[in-house]
Write a structure and sequence with these properties.
22% strand; single chain; 310 residues
């Protein structure tokens, strides 16, 4: 009997790793949505037995990043969500802790930017918004995510493409998507800019008017022109990634990478992408490391071009 029990115990699979995912922003934004989607899929697919999400907002994710790196060295159960916004925030804030302080695992998703106004706004089209910007850049206020992030870059590129000095734009940075959305819906700003998925439900309910998207071509199922159609040579895609703690062994990194790969290839994850309108831009391993380095370099050039980094 003892031999039978022991044999049965040996045959049982090892318990899946427990993960804690840091979303370095307030609830409601893209990083929070990404972390909680990961939480649901990792658990539903039995990739992880337990996943917790913690919000550590501030400074475009750089506060959460610094805390994560300092507190989790060698901890293979700790993950952090980041992306293009964090790359820009690190540069803009001259942050002492960068992405080289963690272990990048994979790029997960991509999403285009959207320009919206409150439903009650007299501005009906992207062309009208651009005309107002040209007439008085400071009078047009923009609500978006952290300074130096994708939203800020989008407005800077839009202004430059319209012949407006990007350093003159009146951009109001919010640490979470929920706060920015509240400002837009409350008519506290002229316009809002964020990833398309963060505005979809409000656009569908009629509380926001979608003026344009930052894709190269029109997005299927989205009733809005591209910025290029409006004569603005701007194409921009936000992307999100997941990283692990610093100081992991090769075996630990491989185990985390395998769990993330299993997640992104699962039916549950693909269903979530379709529901949220996120593009599957999964990239891992040396290819992602190389792409991340290229993106950091390109982002620094853009931020210098629009006056956000000297």
């Amino acid at each position: 009997m003892l031999a039978t029990i022991l044999a049965g115990a040996v045959a049982l699979p090892a318990l899946a790793a427990d993960y804690t995912i840091i979303a370095p922003a307030n609830p409601g934004g893209g990083w929070d949505q990404t972390a909680r989607t990961m939480q649901a899929v990792l658990q539903d697919e039995k990739i992880s037995s337990s996943v917790q999400v913690q919000n550590v907002p501030g400074a475009g994710g750089t506060i959460g990043l610094a805390q994560f790196a300092s507190q989790n060295a060698g901890n293979a159960n700790a993950l952090i969500v980041g992306g293009y916004v964090m790359v820009g925030a690190i540069l803009t804030n001259n942050a002492p802790v960068g992405l080289d302080a963690v272990t990048p695992i994979a790029r997960l998703t991509g999403e285009y930017e959207a320009i919206v106004v409150p439903a009650a706004s007299p501005i009906q089209t992207i062309e009208e918004l651009v005309e107002a910007l040209k007439a008085d850049p400071g009078a047009v206020s923009w609500a978006g995510g952290s300074a130096g992030g994708t939203d800020h870059i989008a407005v800077g590129l839009l202004a430059k493409a319209a012949g407006v000095d990007p350093t003159k734009i009146n951009y109001i940075a919010y640490s979470g998507g929920g706060e920015a959305l509240a400002a837009i819906l409350g008519n506290q700003v002229t316009a809002g800019v964020s990833s398309l998925g963060e505005f979809v439900s409000q656009v569908e309910s009629g509380t926001l008017r979608l003026l344009a998207v930052s894709s190269a071509e029109r997005i299927e199922g989205v009733d809005a022109p591209t910025l290029k159609e409006a004569g603005l040579d701007v194409v921009l895609q936000n992307w999100r990634m997941v990283a692990a703690a610093p100081g992991l062994s090769d075996e630990q990194k491989a185990a985390v990478s395998a769990d993330i790969e299993a997640m992104v290839k699962s039916a549950s994850w693909q269903e979530q992408l379709a529901t949220k309108g996120w593009a599957d831009t999964y990239l891992a391993g040396p290819e992602f490391d190389a792409q991340l380095a290229a993106d950091i370099s390109a982002t620094e050039a853009v931020l210098k071009d629009i006056g956000l980094v000297k």
